[in-house]
Design brief:
Elements lengths: L7 H17 L3 H18 L7 E3 L11 H9 L3 E6 L8 E4 L6 E3 L5 E3 L4 E2 L3 E5 L2 E3 L4 E2 L5 H8 L5 E5 L5 E2 L13 E3 L4 E5 L2 E4 L14 H14 L1
Parallel strand pairs: 1-2, 1-7, 7-10, 8-11, 10-12
Antiparallel strand pairs: 2-3, 3-6, 4-5, 8-9, 12-13, 13-14
Helix pairs in contact: 2-5
Length: 228
């Protein structure tokens, strides 16, 4: 069993630095392939993302780039929004975003829309600096997404997006840490089940030669979750 570090803040800061360095060492070709794999998992696994507003994040330091998926969703009739830091230690707000809107540079130099309408997204793709085997996320240390998911009503579906190389046994979650409902990496789709992550497998009835598709299973689980 992992014991909680004496100084959890310092421990998380060190893990954060290590994981970002690991991510930034990914070559561009590999990064593009992993992004395309994540796009495919999200498109097939969560077809309802085009219905309503999806919150995404502007890619920072070689994070998964959701802008390609966002363009497809908008062409299908969906809407996308970016988070805006209002003030320290406060929940984020989301503003409608599409190419061409007026942007400004915010915290960490990340762009945000200046004067578009505020919205509450139906689902949010939450970037992962790291994630653990219980579905908790390690972010950049500001606590913005934890506060946001706790404050928004209704709470958006939280889909963590990141890479397998950023997986940890645990982040030693605290009471304020908000778990992800789902985590998607280049490997596939994970459902948070109880206190662990479950990698969704292809349906047993899939015909021979059919591409492995945990995504269809994920979509059905999502419909069931909404109906509960």
């Amino acid at each position: 069993m992992n014991s909680i570090p004496d100084d959890l803040g310092t421990w998380r800061k060190e893990r954060r630095r290590e994981l970002i360095a690991r991510r930034e060492a990914i070559d561009r070709g590999t990064l593009a392939r992993w992004r395309e794999a994540i796009d495919t998992h999200l498109e097939r696994g969560f077809p309802g993302l085009a219905n309503g507003t999806l919150g995404i994040c502007w890619p920072h330091r070689q994070e998964y780039d959701a802008r390609h998926l966002a363009a497809k969703l908008r062409r299908a009739g969906g809407s996308t929004a970016l988070p805006v830091v209002v003030k320290p230690r406060a929940p984020l707000v989301f503003r409608v975003w599409q190419p061409g809107v007026t942007m400004a540079s915010g915290v960490l130099g990340i762009p945000f829309p200046v004067d578009t309408p505020e919205v509450v997204p139906r689902a949010v793709l939450v970037p992962l600096v790291g994630f653990d085997e219980s579905g908790y996320r390690l972010g950049y240390g500001g606590g913005f997404f934890d506060r946001t998911l706790a404050a928004l009503a209704p709470r958006p579906l939280a889909i963590g997006v990141g890479f397998e190389l950023c997986r940890l046994p645990t982040i030693f979650p605290q009471a304020y840490d908000q778990p992800m409902d789902w985590i998607v990496t280049e490997r596939g789709i994970y459902r948070r089940h109880g206190e662990g992550l479950e990698l969704l497998e292809a349906p047993r009835s899939a015909a021979p030669g059919t591409p492995a598709s945990p995504v269809c299973y994920a979509a059905e689980l999502e419909r069931n979750r909404t109906a509960e």
